Amino acid sequence: MLHPRIQEVTQRVIERSKNTRQDYLERISHAKKQTRVRAGLGCGNIAHVMAACSSDDKARLKSDEQPNLAIINSYNDMLSAHVPYKDYPDLIKDIATKFDATAQVAGGVPAMCDGVTQGRDGMELSLFSRDVIAMSTAISLSHDVFDGVFCLGVCDKIVPGLLIGALSFGHLPVFFLPAGPMQSGIPNKEKARIRQKFAQGLVSREDLLEAESASYHSAGTCTFYGTANSNQMLMEIMGLHLPGSSFINPYTELRDGLTGNAVETMLKQLTDDKESPCLADVISEKTIINGLVGLLSTGGSTNHAIHIVAIAKAAGIQVTWKDMSDLSEVVPLLTRIYPNGSADVNHFQAAGGMGFLMRELASAGYLHTDVKTMLGDGLAPYMTEPRLDKDDSLIMSNSTGPTKVKWVDCPANSHDEEVLRPVSNPFSKQGGLQLLTGNLGKAVIKVSAVAIEHQVVTAPAKVFSSQSALQDAYTRGELNQDFIAVLKEQGPKAKGMPELHKLTPVMATLQDEGFKVAIVTDGRMSGASGKVPAAIHLAPEAVEGGVIAKIREGDLVTLDAPNGILKVHVSDEELAKREAELSLPSATFGTGRELFTGFRNIVSSADLGASAFGLE
């Protein structure tokens, strides 16, 4: 039986989205009814499509009888998570050829790394890159010559951007192909310890670089549970990955086998079954709720409080932070993965992984199991895990992948209950995200990594307009006290909503020294949000008239996560008298920022998805 709260919130979302969802599905229905894409092309058009193809592929494209698959690739060789994608297009094309089909790299999308741009000007482009990726995806598919789509992306804004863009082509089947996490490096506790020591001036920059390099050391996704790995969880629980494929390391037989199997699966659907679940059917109201449940039950990235709103909107679905918060009241926290614990995603995978997690959630009524996935009807296949298969009798007759894969039942019990637990013994009876409201507006807080004794803070405000200003105050010895750091002018319209991860070592050090501290900001902290309570994504932001711009040094502020309260202890009358205090405008040029002036002018608030284009 479905949990009553899951049913209640789902029904609320369905009712709220009735008109916008219907409009979206009508557009998709119209696209489905059109003449098969390549049949409508003129001779000059099709000549351009196949000009650089082999003679065999030209013949296939001319006949217009077999599928032509689009590959949207985020490959670059600077960022570890995307390096493995270099070889994917050739693998996809080879398998397509064996099915007498074709595949083409339809386009590439940018993939920037928040880990590289932390604390730097480039971070002001990070959130906007999601919408650039969405538009790049749409441009890639606008040639309208494809029968299915493979999206190759992993990290923070790349996966949401690919999905938002692909939803404009929701009449097509769309599969996401993960690249997998790098092998585990230095223990996360040690990495965090050295970061704090560096913030205190107790270790050298060389020591810090050595620790960071031992953590981020090879091809693959970073192993902590930030936005990149939250993306992978989300794509799997929403049915856009093959079951159990999210956290298999790159350059392994199983990883290659899963990639090949995904290509085979789509081609078999398109050639043998003559039908494949289209993206618009997979991404439904129930699927979005499943994604939120996955996020809450794993203590996932707070960035998805923004991204899921935007993804849902692209499918005509309207979800709110209140929906997330109401779900969080009942969804149990089942994992402890850094920064919510000391383990990384490789430990999570070894403990039982996504199959165990989804089976536990479904068995307790927290997931809609009657949904479409890339495999067809229902979530049952996602409660299994993949294995290399040496028995040819278990392989479908037309399997042509580089390695054979089979799926087996996931473990009956977690192999490590310090990392992954059953619903009967959760780390917390509530999920990892909380909505905060009060006279400052509304914000979200990730509580899964915050100890109970730190979840309520009432202290004087110390007001800053940049991370560096706070760091300088710490260096001068001005922060050795209880306080709430109010970091304003960091929202979407002000600066593109940069992550403020540089605050973490300083604030964590002060908390460890016994001071009661917290953060309130209209910026982001992301999947790296850790043990310091942080009210983030505050809306309205400072430059839109948010009350955060009226907080003065020394004002008493309360952040009460358990009760969902965020307020400044100043009367309404006094706040009405105060003028907003805004610093001089930040630079709007350099590092490409001048190209995004239009985005900053039209971007929506964080609670509406922080999107630079409206999707109603």
UniProtKB/TrEMBL annotation:
Residues 66-380 form the Dihydroxy-acid/6-phosphogluconate dehydratase N-terminal domain. Gene3D superfamilies: IlvD/EDD C-terminal domain-like. Pathway: Carbohydrate metabolism; Entner-Doudoroff pathway. GO terms for biological process: D-gluconate metabolic process; Entner-Doudoroff pathway through 6-phosphogluconate. It is an enzyme of class 4 (lyase). [4Fe-4S] cluster binds at C155, C222. One of its GO terms (molecular function) is phosphogluconate dehydratase activity. GO terms for cellular component: cytosol. Keywords: 4Fe-4S, Carbohydrate metabolism, Gluconate utilization, Iron, Iron-sulfur, Lyase, Magnesium, Metal-binding. Its EC number is 4.2.1.12. It catalyses: 6-phospho-D-gluconate = 2-dehydro-3-deoxy-6-phospho-D-gluconate + H2O. Residues 418-610 form the Dihydroxy-acid/6-phosphogluconate dehydratase C-terminal domain. Binds 1 [4Fe-4S] cluster. Its cofactor is [4Fe-4S] cluster. Pfam families: ILV_EDD_C (PF24877), ILVD_EDD_N (PF00920). Belongs to the IlvD/Edd family. HAMAP family: Edd. Catalyzes the dehydration of 6-phospho-D-gluconate to 2-dehydro-3-deoxy-6-phospho-D-gluconate. This is Phosphogluconate dehydratase. It comes from Pseudoalteromonas arctica.
